[in-house]
Write a structure and sequence with these properties.
This protein is α+β, with helices and mostly antiparallel strands and 355 residues long. The chain is built from one helix and 24 strands.
Length: 355
């Protein structure tokens, strides 16, 4: 049973100046006990290592005994044999010589495996001829693995040889091809309704909105039954992920709004920026920045602004819409008490709400 030990408390950090002294005292006070416990655990580890070494020696002796028993079994009558006949791995009829007196029968499935690399080099097939008195045996090889000419084999009974090359050949429905299909540069995503994986072009139509599409040159996954479909779009470099649902695809196609699964970051290095649904704008410019809220937003659209330039003069322009049911045209981010604010569009009557 492992020896118990007491984890060290949280180490002091200058990032928590008010707690530094208390955390430092607690950390230093815990070190003697921790050191004693670690020494005991180390001693136990040495004892365990000695025990393991003794066990390994016992196992090695047992392995030697088992190996000798295996040799005796191979040379006895049965359905396991060895051969030194030189054979090149391949399909078709293969003839070799094994020990005499073996109980193989014509029609039985067997494997002929390379003694040095049985998992890599092998042949499998059905016995077409066997003479127990001479040890001559012929196998019609149906499947192979590996390559080369080998002269040290183990021949043993196996299960029936299946020569199928697809999952359907084993009674399993073949999986959908997961190789992505490339869409044209300006492909209309409204028309991509077949289940599958796709690469999105540089200027997709009807993709998530943005100054440039946040999923341009990214990936698209579609799951569809021909009537309804779900699309999941991924940006190439910005961690943007959007989803939407389409209905009545076979009659009158209708797509819902793209919704971000998580806001994606955009570094703003200039003095102006326009926000889009799903964006997290990080204000890093040395001068004050004005962020314009999305135009014509849908209910539920979101964006976030993080003040990372240390200023209290950054501004949000509400783009003619209300904010918190107020008609103020702008809001100045003039408080040093926050670094990040997120907004969600509620309605034309209420406008943007801080969440």
């Amino acid at each position: 049973m492992p020896l118990p030990y007491t984890p060290l408390p949280t180490a002091p950090s200058r990032a928590r100046p008010t707690a530094f002294a208390d955390e430092g005292d607690a950390f230093m006070a815990a070190l003697p006990t921790f050191g004693t416990q670690m020494a005991a655990i180390g001693a136990q580890a040495e004892t365990n290592a000695s025990t393991a070494a003794a066990d390994a020696a016992t196992a090695s002796a047992a392995a030697s005994t088992a190996s000798a028993a295996a040799v005796t079994a191979v040379n006895a009558p049965g359905t396991s044999a060895t051969s030194t006949t030189s054979l090149t791995i391949g399909l078709g009829s293969k003839s070799l010589t094994i020990q005499t007196g073996k109980a193989f029968a014509v029609g039985q499935p067997v494997t002929i495996a390379d003694n040095a690399a049985p998992a890599t080099n092998w042949m499998a097939g059905n016995i077409s001829a066997h003479t127990p008195g001479t040890g001559a045996i012929t196998v019609n090889v149906l499947r192979t693995s590996g390559s080369g000419t080998i002269a040290s084999w183990t021949v043993a009974l196996a299960g029936p040889v299946n020569t199928a090359t697809t999952l359907a050949g084993y009674g399993i429905t073949d999986a959908v091809n997961t190789v992505a299909t490339a869409l044209a540069a300006s492909a209309d995503l409204n028309t991509v309704t077949a289940s599958g994986f796709y690469t999105i072009g540089a200027t997709p139509v009807n993709g998530p909105a943005g100054a440039t599409s946040p999923v341009a040159s990214g990936m698209l996954i579609v799951s569809s039954n021909g009537v309804r479909a779900v699309q999941l779009a991924f940006g190439q470099t910005n961690n943007a992920v959007f989803s939407r649902v389409g209905i009545s695809l076979s009659t009158s196609p209708s797509w819902g709004s793209w919704e971000p699964l998580e806001l994606y970051g955009v570094d703003v290095t200039g003095t102006t920026a326009t926000a889009y649904n799903g964006q997290h704008l990080k204000l890093t410019n040395a001068a004050a920045t004005t962020v314009t809220a999305p135009a014509s937003p849908s209910v539920g659209d979101r964006f976030r602004v993080s003040v990372m330039n240390g200023l209290v003069t950054n501004v949000i322009n509400w783009n003619g819409l209300k904010h918190e049911n107020l008609s103020d045209a702008t809001m100045t981010l003039d408080s040093s008490g926050f670094t990040s604010l997120e907004f969600e569009y509620q309605s034309a009557a209420y406008g943007w709400k801080m969440i």
